[in-house]
Amino acid sequence: MKKRRSCIALLLVWSMLLLLTACGGTAVSDASSAPAETIAETSAPSEAPKPEENQEPESTVMSMEETAPEPELEYTLPIHDDSISISYWISWNPDLSAVCAPGDASVYKALEERTGIHVDYRESSPFNQGQDFDLMIASGDYVDIFPASSNLSPDQAFEQDICIDLTGYMNTYLRNYHAILKSNDEYMHTAVNDEGQILSVNSMYDENVAVNSGLVIRKDWLDQLGLDMPETYDDYHKVLTTFKNQLGANAAMHMGSSGVLTGNYFCSGFGINGYVSMMDAPFYQVDGEVKFGPIQPEFKDYLTMMNQWYSEGLIYKNFYSVADPMTAPSDQITTDNMGLWVCELARMHEFDSMFDSSSTFEIWPVQDAVQNRGDVNKIRVATEMATSGGEVIASTCAYPEIAALWLDYRYTDEGRLLLNYGVEGEGFEYVDGEPQLTELITGAENINFGLAMYATVFLGYNEPERMWSTYSDAQMASLDIWKMGDNEYGYSANAIMNTQEQETFSRAYSDINTYLLAEIVRFVIGDRSLDEFDDYVADVEAMGIDACIECKQAALDRYLD
């Protein structure tokens, strides 16, 4: 497989795909050094602990600099050879539901065979996951392992005695996970809370995997008209105007709510964060001071420009009503009415299939706009390294040590290979000593379907090469182009608010966010005069934005300390 380490980005598959959660567990020798074929595998003691005998290891506060000793306990696979079952919450790909249950998918069958642990999957569609999750928590009938959510953080779950403290498991049952945490301060920052506890097992990824979407443009139109790739606001305005006047594109740009309301594609060039639609996203920092983008004077400049472009007919008239904000309307693309839109990395190939082989249709990624040629945007979505998908072990779990070992398996070399590529001969084959996905995955009409059947979509430790092997030239180019900017003003995702701060923040920001989503659209379409921008700012301040900023500031201060 051809490695592309020059591209420091990878698709954030969990946010843009229909989630498929994978997991595993084996406390093995250090996953960073042991080859998969010689890995010192682990298991639990020969006799499974009975519920009444089960005792959680004593919680210990972990310092960021702590180096864990080698565990005294050695293991062999399977983890357990008795009929032990654990339950696991999984958001299952709806396309797969009609084909097989989670436990029947290739990777999950192999996982059970290797670990000796049977898993009862509690399946939830991504579309109903929030509701199903809330019902599960309210009932008190917890699955043994489940993901934290925006409504129930690991800290909140622990305070409510819903999950256990995993700190004392790190040197034994979660040894491989711990080794990866210690390999990077950012990983550890995310995992350890203000009390020094580790409450969840996170998925980890590097190389800018958060770069999952950006602007694409009709390159064939640029070539036809003799236009260069746009960089500045003036460039974009010229290109869009030419698309409209010379090619008849009556919706030259489709931003959708993903562009106008949630994107920094045209906002970050003003030096602020305008990523509005995602909860708490518009916060950023300058020299450590937290700011809120939608109330800055520069945001009025951005809205003024958007309003002008909209009034000139350059923006899709009904952008705010598109059901899927990340997908431009197909009928507008195939009828040559649209030349610039927001696209998810995973969906770029879908546009090629809209046109026959004789068409000159070609799209290409294009950078976010800047004020002046050569400017560097200080805000972008991508991060250099991150974690996501924190999972906790329920306080009601009968076999927490077994559950921890099962989770830890994903962080071994063997587990990482299985969860990224699947079973050899099915999901992958070795080519020149490197795993390469088979036609069962790459040849699937829907590659997400193929990945879900024979590998995974949501992983313990993401392998960049796995995804790169499925990318087109345009997708590979996107990884470099969409991450342009130094993110100097970015608010770290690892600056986590504590429970009290989160509660204070949520009480105020819910109403603020609703207000922003409505009023920003009104400004853009001209339903509200920009002369009222100061009144709009006053409304946001009256709704408690200062308290929200203070909460975010406190979290950032702790992170930077």
Rg estimate, integer Å: 24 Å
Proportion in β-strands: 5-15%
- The span between the termini is 42 Å
Q: Give the low-confidence spans.
A: 1-74
The CATH C-level name of the largest domain is Alpha Beta
Largest beta-sheet characterization:
4 strands, mixed
Per DSSP, the total helix count is 22
Structural class computed from helices and strand pairing: alpha+beta
Integer tally of domains: 2
Average predicted confidence as pLDDT? 77
By CATH, the superfamily of the largest domain comes out as: Periplasmic binding protein-like II
Q: Give the total of beta strands.
A: 13
Please bin the fraction of helical residues: 25-40%
Envelope shape: globular
CATH architecture of the largest domain: 3-Layer(aba) Sandwich
Main-sheet strand order equals: 6-9-5-10
Write the CATH fold name of the largest domain. D-Maltodextrin-Binding Protein, domain 2
